[in-house]
Structures are given as structure tokens and as C-alpha cells.
Amino acid sequence: MTMKFNPEKNLASGELLRMLHFSIDHAFDPAVWIGPDAKFFYANASACRNLGYTREEMLGMSVTDINSYFSSEKWAEHWKELKTQKSISFESVHRRKDGSLYPVEISANYLECEGKEYNCIFFREITDMDRKEADMSKFRNAIEQTVDLVVITDTNDVIEYVNPALVKKIGYTFKELVGSKSEIFRPVEHDEKFYKKINKIIFGGKIWNGEMVVKRKDGKLLTATITISPISDRTGKITHIVVIMRDISQDKKIEAQLIQSEKLASIGIFVSGIAHEINNPLTAILGYSQMLVLEPDLSIDVKEKLEVIVKQAGRSVNIIKNLHKFAQGKSSGKTEFMLNRAIESSIDLYKYRLEMDNVTIHMLLDKNVLRIVGDMNMIEQVFLHIIINAHDEMVKIHDGGNLTVKTKLREGIIAITFENTGPHIPEQILKKIFDPFYTTKDIGQGTGLGLSVSYGIIKNHGGKIWAENITAPKGNGMEKTGVRFIIELPASQKAVCTEY
Predict the structure, then answer these.
(1) Which fold has domain 251-330?
(2) pTM for this entry
(3) Cβ atoms 242, 162 nearer than 8 A
(4) Of 425, 441, 398, 416, which is closest to residue 480 (Cα–Cα)?
(5) Where, residue-wise, is CATH 3.30.450.20 in the chain?
(6) Are the beta carbons of 243 and 153 closer than 8 angstroms?
(7) Which residue among 50, 232, 252, 359 has its CA within the 20 to 30 Å range from the CA of 397?
(8) Topology, domain 333-500
(9) Residue 145 — φ and ψ, nearest 5°?
């Protein structure tokens, strides 16, 4: 049977009003109506039971009698805020008739009827369970929002919870991880003996701290500091394991690069000393061979061989000189020098390695390049970094390659280009190659400082440096043919020097 309800008819007959009064009067939550003067003019049965007063007693009381916080000034502020907001929820403390205090959650609602104002309040006692639930909610929100990676497993290593940070970092979805074992992101870098040792500590009731390699869904590895803690119930029985991880891959990379940089500095000191020691006997060899060449009684064959010795000894002296200068890594101060000679000096320093790896050098240097004012040692370091990078990239994919170095003067600016036939640099990497510590090389094979330092040196000389990929037409498309580094430096104000 369906009953039709007509609010207007019931309201007119008073039935709706009686129903509403009955519902509020017998509601489970305490409810009171208060006027602007803070006096009660209604309290339902639950409010009376909760506070320990009769209804008659309640109707002769004010808010201050059950809540000392609301002085006349505070009540005036509350009423003003309530009229503006219309509805306010907050926590407070009520006092019962027996004097006991208890925490409550209050919902205050502003009502206006027939020209009169009311504050209709519903309140609820906050129990220990409510507090625990609130604490758990705060704890869960903290875990959900932390940048650390959090995993909770049972004692059989089955994952029961992972936080959003872990999902984002590891690459698996929440559904893929929950129900799986944590070995899903364990790499082969750690054997079973490693994990058994950790389990012995955890199930012994202790916390394990350390570093571990973690495997992402895409197979990439990251290094993390990890804290693994047992969770026990009231009886002391371990029921769950919580794992908190922090990705330190970038920190480890920077640390390794700094160590490598320090090694290079030490090597520089060592090389400088060796260069100095080798230079002494080389000077003697060069000096005596030059004297012997001038002897009048030498045969043509012997003289030609001595000239080879003179030439190669002179070349060795020059290489040692450049090596010593480069290893010192000190500023020589800004002076005027020929840029082409700085290029040739850098090439000579690495020429043997280039030739050994079948890299052909093409020098297209402008004979009319102006002198520049700068630190020749620093500029040579820039050139050498570019040459070494070009060599490394070419030998990775070719059995050799071509390195072309050009200089050109145009409107007071000297353009230096280094073109290599190595692989293209991906666009996303091309934007970062001059950033400090950025490197695509394996740890121990590069510091990530070379190009960033080069960028700083060139900028300090009032110039520019950038890199671009080289393409050439092929058929209906374009062929990737290599990479070009361009440096622009301001020429000296002096006249062109044609002697070279």
C-alpha cells in the first residue's frame, strides 16, 4: 500500500510540526536551541541525558553554564560569525551537572523564523575511538602525502599497502602491487643471503637500516636508503612489516662524480710532476740532436734520421708543455693570443689517442683569424673537453670517425666549430648538456662537469657556446650525420694577423 504525503495539508493540520518536534525530541544526537542572549529555550531528551539536567533545569540555563569558553564577549563573536557563515562545525568541551568535563563535536546552525533568530545546535561526545580514528586519519594522510616510498607487507612478504609516492616512482599501479610479493621490485644485485640476513634482524624484533637497489617496472634501477621495521600486536607477535624508502640515486651519482673530480685533480698533480720530470731528458735529447744535425761530416742518411729525431723530440717537448699546462688547471690571466694555436695545441694533446682509434682530423682554420684576449689555458681546456667528448661518442658506434675543426671571422666575432660524425644527441638531453653534473656516461667515466665548466669559461670570455645535431638531405628525407659544437668569441681590436 502506498501512502501519499501532502506537506501543505499536514502542515495546516499541525501534523508535520508535531512530527518534526517528535523526531528532534527523540533524536539520538543531543540538540539544543539557543537565542542571541545565549539562553536555552529548547533541549531534546538526549541533550538532557548527556548533560545530566532535567529539561526544566536546562530551560533556565545559558551556554556559559555548560561551556566556560563562551564568555559574553566570546558568545557575541560566535553569534556574529554564525550569522555570516550560517553553519559552523568545531570542537569544544562541555561540563555535566556532576562537574565532569568531556570533549564534544559541535554543529551550529543559524536559523531565522518570524523575525526571531536561533542557534540550532547538534553536539556529539568525542570518544576514545573517535580520537583513535582521527589519529589514524592523520597518520594515513601523512603517509599518502609523504615523498618517501612506503610499503606494508604481511609476514609472508605479501604487499598489503603502498603509498602514492611509491606507485609513481616504481611505475607499477596500486592493483599490480597489492597482493604481490615485494620481490616484484627486487633486482638481481642482491642475493637470497642478503635478504635472509635482513629477515633475521626484522623477525628478531629489530629495525634494519641500509641502502638497497630497487628495480622499477621499466627495468631501471634506483638506489634507496631503506628502513624496515616490524609491526607487533598487543601480545608482541609480529604481524606486519613496514618498509620506508627514499630515492638517493641522484645523490649517489653526484657523490660519485665529486669523487671522480677529486681523482682527476689528484691525477692532474701527478701528471704535472711526471711532465716536469720527462721534460728534462727530452730537452737534452732535443738539444744534442740539434747539435749533431749541424755536424759537417754526417752522411745524408744519418742527417735525415737525426732530423726525424729533432722533429719528434720537439713535438714531444711541445706535448709535455701542453700537458703540464693543462694539468695545472690554473688561470694564466687574460692575454692576447692566436686562437688557431690554442686549437692546435689542444689537438696535439689528444692526437695520439684520436689516431689510435681511427679518428681523422680535418683542420679548416681561417688564416686571417684575429687574436683574442683571454685565458689561453682555460680556452684550451674547453677545446679539449669537446675533442674528448667527440672522440668518445664516435668510437662508441664507429670504428673511427671524422673530427672537423673550423674557425671563421665574421663582423668582429670568431666562430669556432667542432663537427664530429658521432650519434645525434636526443633533444631532451641537448637541453641539459651544459648543466652541472649532467652526464650520460657511466659512473667513473665522466664527472658531468666538463661542458658546464666550458660553458662558464666561454661566458666569462664574453662568448657563447651551444650544440646542435647535423643533418643532410638523403632521398626524400634527412640523414643524421653527426653533432656540431659552436663557440663564438669576440675578436681582439688589433689588426688581423696573417702570419701563422
Answers:
(1) Helix Hairpins (1.10.287)
(2) 0.44
(3) no
(4) 425
(5) 20-126, 131-247
(6) yes
(7) 252
(8) Heat Shock Protein 90 (3.30.565)
(9) -100, -10
